[in-house]
Amino acid sequence: MRPFVSTSLAVLLALALASPALAQAPPPWKQGQPADMASSPLAPIAQPPAPKAPGEIPVDKIKVPQGFKVSLWAHGINNARAMVWGDKGTLFVSSRVAGNVYAVVDRGGQREVKTIAKGLNLPNGVAFKDGTLYIAEVSQITKMVGIEDKLDSPPKMEMVYDILPRDLPHGWKYLAFGPDGKLYFNIGAPCNICIPPDTHANISRVNPDGSGFEYVAHGVRNSVGFDWHPTTKDLYFATHARDWLGEDVPNDRFDVASKKGLHFGFPYCHQGDILDPEFGRGRSCGEFAPPLLKTGPHVAGNGVEFYTGSMFPAEYKNRVFLAQRGSWNRTQKSGFRVMMVTLRPGDVPRYEVFAEGWLQGDQIWGRPVYTRQMKDGSLLIADDYAGAIYRVSYQP
Amino acid sequence: MAAAGGTAALAADLEAGRRKAEPCAACHGRDGNATTAGTPSLAGQPVYFTHWQLIKYRDGRRRDPVMAPFAAVLSDADMADLSAYYAAQRPVRRPAVTDPARVAAGRPLADLYHCSSCHRPGLVGQEQAARLAGQDLDYLLRLLRAFKARTASDLDGTMTVATQPLTEDEIVSLAHFLATLGEP
C-alpha cells in the first residue's frame, strides 16, 4: 500500500468526525469500540441526580495511612467537583452535569452551602484571584467580581473569553491560575479516539483579561487536573487515556510540561509505548513526550495538587495528590482512590495509595474527583457521586 | 451501572410521590400516562431521568412556560418522590397514528444511530436516558428536532451529538418507529 493511502484514510476519518453529518457516529462514550465488543455491557457510570444524605455516606470505609483521619466536612453539594479558595475563606465548588457553582462558608464548625450560579453548561472549572471568581464552562470563561462580599446576591457573570470550541464531548474544563498569572485550561479531544482538529486536545492559557491566547501542550486527549511544582514552577498534569483498547491498556498518564509546545502523543501513541492500532500507523512513540508516570488503566485521573502544607509529615512536602474518579471501561473496576506521587529527579516517581475505600468489591459508593488543601494543611477531597467533601487531617 | 439506580429510589417515598403528583395529573395523567398530544408520558421513566429533568426545569436549563412554575417550587425531596412514583407506574403506549412505511424505515435507523446503546434494547430507557418506547409522537418529533437544532437541554451533550447526523426525514421515521414500541 502506498503511503498516501493511509494519510488519505486519516484525513477522511478526521473529516468524518469534524463533520458529524457524514457519519453515523455512536454516542461519544461508545466511539472507537471495536465491532467484536459491540455487545459489551461496559458503559459510563450514571451520575445520581441528588447528593447523598450524611447517613448514606460511609466515611469510615475510607482508608488512609496511619495517623491520618477522615471526616465528612460538607454534604448536600450535588455533583461537587473542583474546589478553590476565596481570599476571605469561602470555598468555591464547581459541578459538571448539575450545572451549578457553589460557595461553602464555614460558620462556627458548620458548613453552609449556597448555590451562587445555576443552569450553566458543564461548569467544571473554577479559579480565584484578587477577589474575583473565574468560571469555565464548555465554550467560555466568565468572572464574578467581588463575589465573596455578595454570596447571597451574586454579581452578574462577566465575559472573560468566549471563543472556545463548543464541542460537548470532553468539552468541560479544568481552570487554574499558573505561576505566570495566566488562566490555564484544557481543550479536550471531541471524541474517544480521532484525529482531533488542530484546535483541540491541548492545554491552553489566556491572560485574565481574555487576551493573549496560546497553546501550552499538544497531543493531550483530556486533562482535567493540573498544578505547578512549588519550586521549579513546571506544569504537571493528569490525562485520561482512550477507551476500548483493552482492559489493561492504555494507562492514564501523569506528565510534566517542562517547556511550551511539547506533544504528548494523542491520538498516535498511548502511554508512551503503544501505537494506536488505527491512528498510529506510520508513527513512532519516539516522536512524542513520554509519560512521567503511567497511572493505571481507565483510572480516570482528575485532580492534581502539590502538597505545600505543614500539617502532614515532612515527607509529604511537594508530594502530588492524584484523585482518580474511577473506571467504567474495565470489567474489574480501577481507580476510585486518591494516589500520591513522590517526584525523584533522575528516577521513576514513587506512586502509592493515599486514600481508598470508595470501591467495595465491585460496588462503588463514591468517586473522589478533586482535592484542595486547607489553610491548616489538612486536605479536602470532593466526591461528585455522593455530593460530599471529606477532610483528611493528621495527628501524630 | 446497576448499583447506581438504588440511591434515589431508596430515599424516596412512593406514597408521598403519588400525592405530590396530583397537580401533574391534569396534563401527564394520574398514573403518568398522558393523553394530550404533545405532552410526554412519565410512567415507567427511569428515576434518574425524571429527577434530572425536574432539576433542569428548576434551574432554567430546560425551558417550558408550563413546567417552569411547577418545577420552581419543588424541593430535592419532592423531585426524588415524584421520580420514584412515576418510575413505578406501568407505561402504556400512546395511541398514535403511525405510518407503517415510516415505522419500517425507522426500525433500522434506531440500530444505525446506536439508540439502544444508552436507551437499552426495546428503547425502554435506563438511569438518565429516557424511555422512548410508546412515547407521544409529537413530543418525540419535537425533542429530536430540538436536539438537532441544539436548542434542547442536554445533560452531558450525548443527545446533541447523536442527533447531528439525522436528516429531517430520518427524524420523522425514527419517531414513528419509537411511538409503536411498548405495550398498549
Structure report:
The complex is a heterodimer of chains A (396) and B (184). Chain A has a single domain (75-394), classed as Neuraminidase. Chain A has one helix and 29 strands. Chain A has one helix spanning 3-18; strands at 68-74, 83-85, 91-93, 101-107, 110-117, 125-129, 132-136, 141-145, 158-161, 175-177, 183-187, 202-206, 214-218, 225-228, 235-239, 251-257, 262-263, 269-270, 274-275, 293-297, 301-306, 320-324, 337-342, 350-356, 359-360, 363-364, 368-373, 379-383, 388-394. In chain A, the strands form eight sheets. Chain A has a five-stranded mixed β-sheet, with no helix packed on it. Chain A has a four-stranded antiparallel β-sheet with strand order 1-29-28-27, with no helix packed on it. In chain A, strands 2-3-4-5 form a four-stranded antiparallel β-sheet, with no helix packed on it. The longest helix of chain A has 16 residues, at 3-18. Chain B folds into two domains: 2-87, Cytochrome c-like domain (Cytochrome Bc1 Complex, Chain D, domain 2), CATH 1.10.760; 100-179, Cytochrome Bc1 Complex, Chain D, domain 2. Helix content of chain B is 52%, strand content 0%. Chain B has helices spanning 6-11, 14-20, 25-28, 47-59, 67-72, 76-87, 100-112, 115-119, 137-148, 158-163, 168-179. In chain B, helix 4 (47-59) runs antiparallel to helix 6 (76-87). The radius of gyration of chain B is 16 Å and the shape is globular. At the A-B interface, strand 26 of A face helix 1, helix 4, helix 6 and helix 10 of B.
Q: Based on the structure given, which CATH architecture of the largest domain in chain B is correct?
A: Orthogonal Bundle
H/E series of chain A:
HEEEEEEEEEEEEEEEEEEEEEEEEEEEEE
The protein's oligomeric status is: heterodimer
Number of helices of chain A: 1
The count of DSSP E runs of length 2 or more, i.e. the number of strands of chain B, is 0
Which class of the largest domain in chain B in CATH terms?
Answer: Mainly Alpha
Within CATH, the superfamily of chain A carries the name TolB, C-terminal domain
* Structure class of chain B: mainly alpha
What is the count of structural domains of chain B? Answer: 2
Characterize the overall form of chain B.
Answer: globular
Q: Determine the structural class of chain A based on helices, strands and strand pairing.
A: mainly beta
Q: Give the CATH topology of the largest domain in chain B.
A: Cytochrome Bc1 Complex, Chain D, domain 2
CATH superfamily of the largest domain in chain B: Cytochrome c-like domain
Average pLDDT of chain A:
93
- Stretches with pLDDT under 50, minimum 5 residues of chain A: 1-23
In this structure, how is the largest beta sheet of chain B organized? none
Categorize the overall geometry of chain A: globular
- Widest sheet: strand ordering of chain A: 10-11-12-13-17
Question: What gyration radius of chain A follows from the Cα positions, in whole Å?
Answer: 20 Å
Topology, number of strands of chain A: 29
